[in-house]
């Protein structure tokens, strides 16, 4: 294994420059901790961008992957796959949805949702129904349709012409949404909590109003829970906070406990929009990914990590909000569970750097918002340790 300098040089020489990488090469993880190639340990409050909800290398997920890899890693969806069927049952039995399509990522899950929404709407209402309404500041993935559904032009620049059939409205503004619905509208795509957009939480009355509009106009409510689903908000699924049920829901990130897998769930009625041949994925739902997903979701449920997330998240949110009285450049702290954001009036990148230098990994979304997405196994003591580092970084920023 090379040292950190060697790994960074190799990466810089051969990889496409699609990421603004930090000068850090991580090589090992265990629980809440990761180590760089030079042996320095960090407390990880990024958790692979909400992927490692069980922490790094959780023993149940590792054992499931090792066992499945020694038996059967890949099988075409021409055949029935036991781990896939068992994971689908687990998701259905613990949600309000009835059918599952497996893929490999959140963007693929969004693509599947868009295709299903259009297929169903055309069969149900006629060929004029194809348009998807999404929100400004949303983020739905990097494929061409997903990035078009994303209501942030900075991700779309240089990719034109973008696919047709997408409109944007202001988040948490029911009047904006109501005025955008037209004869071509097939569905409304929203994140219950906009993660990449700044940790913006939907108002309960707003999301309930969206559900009513969908019912009134025969539209599909599509909830993107790629980042906020599977326990992250203090409920197994974020929609449970709002008293609404989606017609379609997308999952990924935490679903595989660190292994790549995505899923699109739908009600029985809406799932009937797909017939054999309408959609597929060569690697989607392969035995290895589904074995990892089965272990990850079973663990989240069986050890009641959702309740722990709610408890620790409430504590974390309160402690972060206490900092507002001390630092005048903290504008707002918001979020649910362990998906929290701290918006500043100054640029946040320097604070991320200072925390990293002190052994804490956090990240910045946009220029002004710090995001905290630790593994769900985090404790109040871990939060205190992270806040000690954050406070030191904020003190230095304040003095500067």
Strand content: 15-25%
Alpha-carbon distance between the two ends: 38 Å
Give me the oligomer status. single chain
Assign the CATH superfamily of the largest domain. Answer: Type I PLP-dependent aspartate aminotransferase-like (Major domain)
Count of DSSP H/I helices: 13
Largest sheet: 7 strands, mixed
Strand line-up across the major sheet = 4-12-11-10-7-5-6
Structural class: alpha/beta
The beta-strand count equals 17
Helical content class: 25-40%
CATH topology of the largest domain: the name is Aspartate Aminotransferase, domain 2
Architecture of the largest domain, according to CATH? 3-Layer(aba) Sandwich
Report low-confidence residues grouped into runs of 5 or more: none
Please write the string of helix (H) and strand (E) elements: HEEEHHHEHEHEHEEEHEEEHHHEEHEEEH
Average pLDDT figure:
97
Task: Tally the structural domains.
Answer: 2
Radius of gyration: 21 Å
CATH class of the largest domain: Alpha Beta
Which features characterize this protein?
13 helices, Aspartate Aminotransferase, domain 1, four-stranded mixed beta sheet, 400 residues, alpha/beta, Aspartate Aminotransferase, domain 2, 17 strands, 2 domains
Briefly summarize what is shown.
This protein has 400 residues and is an alpha/beta fold.
Question: Can you characterise this structure?
Answer:
Helices cover 38% and strands 18% of the residues. The chain is built from 13 helices and 17 strands. It folds into two domains: 4-57 and 304-399, Alpha-Beta Complex (Aspartate Aminotransferase, domain 1); 72-302, 3-Layer(aba) Sandwich (Aspartate Aminotransferase, domain 2), CATH 3.40.640.10. By secondary structure, it is of the alpha/beta class. The mean pLDDT is 97. The chain has helices spanning 4-14, 47-50, 59-69, 82-93, 106-125, 144-149, 174-180, 204-217, 268-271, 287-302, 305-322, 349-357, 380-399, and strands at residues 26-30, 33-36, 41-44, 99-103, 131-135, 166-169, 185-190, 193-194, 200-201, 220-224, 248-251, 262-266, 330-336, 339-344, 360-361, 363-365, 369-372. Strands 4-12-11-10-7-5-6 form a seven-stranded mixed β-sheet, with helices on both faces. The radius of gyration is 21 Å and the shape is globular.
């Amino acid at each position: 294994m090379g040292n950190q300098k060697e790994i960074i040089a190799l990466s810089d020489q051969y990889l496409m420059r699609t990421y603004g990488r930090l000068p850090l090469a991580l090589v090992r993880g265990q629980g809440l901790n990761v180590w760089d190639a030079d042996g320095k340990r960090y407390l990880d409050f990024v958790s692979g961008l909400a992927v490692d909800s069980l922490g790094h290398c959780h023993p149940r997920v590792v054992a499931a992957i090792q066992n499945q890899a020694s038996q059967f890693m890949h099988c075409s969806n021409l055949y029935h796959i036991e781990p896939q069927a068992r994971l689908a049952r687990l998701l259905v039995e613990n949600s309000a949805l009835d059918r599952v399509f497996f893929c490999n990522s959140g963007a693929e899950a969004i693509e599947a949702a868009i295709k299903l929404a259009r297929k169903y709407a055309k069969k149900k209402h006629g060929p004029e129904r194809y348009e998807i309404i999404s929100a400004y500041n949303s983020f739905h993935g990097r494929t061409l349709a997903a990035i078009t559904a994303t209501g942030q032009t900075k991700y779309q620049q240089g990719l034109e012409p973008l696919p047709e059939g997408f409109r944007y409205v202001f988040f948490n503004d029911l009047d904006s949404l109501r005025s955008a619905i037209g004869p071509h509208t097939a569905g409304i795509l929203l994140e219950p909590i906009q993660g990449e957009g700044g940790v913006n939480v939907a108002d309960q009355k707003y999301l309930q109003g969206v559900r009513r509009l969908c019912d009134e106009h025969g539209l599909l409510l599509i909830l993107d829970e790629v980042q906020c689903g599977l326990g992250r908000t203090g409920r197994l699924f974020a929609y449970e906070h709002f008293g609404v049920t989606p017609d379609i829901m997308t999952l990924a990130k935490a679903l595989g406990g660190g292994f790549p897998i995505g899923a699109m769930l739908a009600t029985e009625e809406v799932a009937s929009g797909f017939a054999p041949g309408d959609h597929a994925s060569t690697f989607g739902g392969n035995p290895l990914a589904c074995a990892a997903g089965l272990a990850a979701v079973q663990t989240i449920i069986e050890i009641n990590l959702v309740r722990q997330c709610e408890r620790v998240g409430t504590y974390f949110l309160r402690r972060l909000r206490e900092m507002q009285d001390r630092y005048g450049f903290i504008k707002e702290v918001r979020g649910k569970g362990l998906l929290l954001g701290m918006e500043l009036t100054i640029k946040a990148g320097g604070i991320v750097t200072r925390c990293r230098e002190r052994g804490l990994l956090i990240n910045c979304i946009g220029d002004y918002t710090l995001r905290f997405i630790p593994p769900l196994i985090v404790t109040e003591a871990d939060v205190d340790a992270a806040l000690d580092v954050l406070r030191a970084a904020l003190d230095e920023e304040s003095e500067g």
